[in-house]
Write a structure and sequence with these properties.
There is one protein chain. The chain is mostly helical and about 80 residues long. It has four helices and two strands. The chain has a two-stranded antiparallel sheet. The longest helix is centred in the N-terminal third of the chain and has 13 residues.
């Protein structure tokens, strides 16, 4: 029988900081806040995409889609 885990992790400090930064930047860092709140394993990747390329709007949307993407299933026997 298989049981599945996901890559979701609790990160309360990152989530708090991300929400605070998103509020202070008027929503610019919203994708990172969403990723941190959802416990995405790639939240730092989303942070850097958002920070460095979010001003293009295209990469901001890419970061937001990544943040709302599903968690990866990790198989455990």
């Amino acid at each position: 029988m298989y049981s599945y885990l996901t890559d979701q992790r609790d990160r309360p400090v990152s989530a708090f900081v991300a929400v605070l930064v998103a509020l202070l930047t008027g929503g610019y860092m919203l994708p990172w806040a969403v990723a941190a709140l959802r416990g995405k394993s790639n939240h730092w990747t989303i942070f850097w995409i958002n920070l460095l390329g979010g001003w293009t709007l295209i990469l901001w949307v890419v970061a937001l889609v990544m943040a709302f993407g599903s968690h990866k299933a990790i198989s455990r026997y």
